[in-house]
Design brief:
The protein has 284 residues and is of the alpha/beta class. 25% of the residues lie in helices and 22% in strands. The protein contains seven helices and 13 strands. α2 packs parallel to α4. Bound molecules: fe (ii) ion (2 copies).
């Protein structure tokens, strides 16, 4: 049996420290649990696509965690896949290289409790960048060799309600790359997909595949994208063993569920990065 903690969407920044206290509380709680590994399912930053300092700050902040950490990037780290939420922050070679130069990799694979745990860069899916094909080949090699159950982590969920959703949307992986990815997953013993991005918690099974949305440790949206989701902050505890996967959301003592709309003055600021600077205490 192995225990993994999933932390998602901490949205850290050296200039905008809205969620720094939550990050410190999260790290304290996770360190007390002494997990075998920690997955950070992206959006470590607020303005990572356009800030060297921010990506470096996020990397340094991970040093507060004492277990082995596996981080993958999200739209606030390397930019969105096209068409994206913001036309000026689409993933490109420069943004990807910034992440790689600091974190060393944008995907991971490790064994835990008789499972294979994989993480991929969701922002490459549908990007058309050469690194998308490289990641596909890597995933094919990983999944093709696999006989043990697999848990896959990525920033964006594959879909909201159904794999047949045709809409191109910023909330999930888009239809074409989703279909390609699902074909790969369905041909392998993949049992669980864990994602972040939506800042709420949901745990459902669709076509024999369990899809778990990890909540953020930073903020909630006024309305979750699915009324059936829990609009709540926290972390996930994932126990992997011969009997399967036991996954539950757990509370972090003292974590504040910041409301994004309220924080941005209900329309006064379009993006958090536009707000007046409010640096956090330095990570130490
Ligand atoms: Fe996020
Ligand atoms: Fe995101």
């Amino acid at each position: 049996m192995a225990r993994i903690i999933v932390i998602s969407d901490p949205h850290l920044s050296p200039t905008h420290g809205f969620f720094w206290d939550n990050w410190c509380r999260t790290c304290e709680a996770v360190n007390r649990l002494t997990p075998d590994a920690v997955i950070v399912s992206s959006d470590l930053c607020i303005n990572g696509p356009d800030s060297d300092a921010e990506v470096a700050f996020a990397s340094q902040a991970l040093a507060l965690l004492r277990s082995p950490v596996h981080a993958i990037p999200g739209n606030h780290d390397v930019g969105d896949e096209p068409p994206g939420q913001e036309a000026e922050q689409i993933i490109d070679a420069h943004r990807l290289q910034r992440w790689l130069s600091v974190f060393g990799a944008d995907r991971f694979a490790f064994d835990a409790g008789g499972w294979r745990v994989l993480g991929i860069n969701a922002q490459l899916l549908g990007s058309g960048l050469p690194q998308e094909a490289e990641q596909d080949a890597w995933l094919d090699a990983e999944l093709g060799a696999e006989s043990q159950p697999v848990l896959l982590a990525l920033h964006k969920p594959l879909f909201l309600q159904s794999a047949t959703e045709a809409e191109v949307t910023v909330t999930s992986v888009n239809p074409e790359p989703r279909a390609r990815l699902l074909r790969r997953l369905q041909a392998a013993p993949v049992q669980v997909v864990v994602s972040g991005h939506l800042h709420c918690h949901r745990d459902v099974v669709r076509n024999d595949l369990r899809h778990v949305w990890a909540p953020s440790t930073a903020f909630i949206l006024q309305e979750p994208v699915d009324a059936a989701a829990d609009n709540i902050v926290g972390i996930l505890s994932v126990e992997l063993g011969d009997d399967g996967a036991s996954i539950e959301r757990i509370d972090v003592p003292g974590l504040v569920a910041h409301d994004l709309a309220e924080l941005k003055g209900h329309g006064r600021y379009k993006y958090l990065r536009d707000m007046p600077a409010c640096p956090p205490p330095a990570a130490s």
